[in-house]
Amino acid sequence: MPLTKKTTKKSASGPRATRPRMPKGYAVPKTERGMLPWTVTRKILEGARSYWLVTIDADGKPHLVGQWGAWIDERWYFEGGEDTKWARNVAREPRIAMGAESGTTAVMIEGRAARVPSVDRPTAERITKQYGAKYGRTYKYRPKPEQWDKGATCSLRRRSWRGMCAGSRAP
To answer: How many domains does the chain have?
Structure first.
């Protein structure tokens, strides 16, 4: 099937926004009209409790896992041991995709992840605060700022659209 032409919107206030490449008939506009402003996208990323992380296995297959995280200063911080499958994948191939949603709005991010040896104290405190707000009450999980010596951070490009889930066909 032919794909719609890629529409890109460059913004001084955030990463480059692009439309997904979808077959004709999926009702994805070809113009920038209706694309989420970065401020709205950032709110979704900051408020998300669950994220979907996609890494690439050694044989090229995608590996999808639900992941907790914190969106701080245009970076996604998430944690996990070096022996997890996603961490081994990132160590070998840093390209990732990540997604989050709020209602009918989905945000997809593509970028590169890198394990960082440590996070500065003010950032660690902000990550800890976000984790406590998201996961503290329900899961009793409140990490300490000192814990953030095994995090991963991403430098990302975003894709976003409103009112449509990936793969759903418009009526």
So the answer is: 1
d(CA 114, CA 104): 30
Residue 3 lies in a domain: no
Question: pLDDT (tens digit, 9 = 90+) per residue, 32-88?
Answer: 777 778 888 889 999 999 999 999 999 999 999 999 999 988 888 888 888 889 989
- Rounded Cα–Cα distance for residues 44 and 42 (Å): 5
For β-strands 75-79 and 70-72, DSSP reports them as antiparallel
Domain with 98 in it: 8-162
Query: What region, left, alpha or beta, does residue 73 occupy, with left being phi > 0 and alpha being psi -120 to 50 degrees?
Result: left
Is 167 among the domain residues? Answer: no
* Contacts (Cβ under 8 Å, ≥6 apart) of 61: none
Looking at residue 133, what is its pLDDT? 94
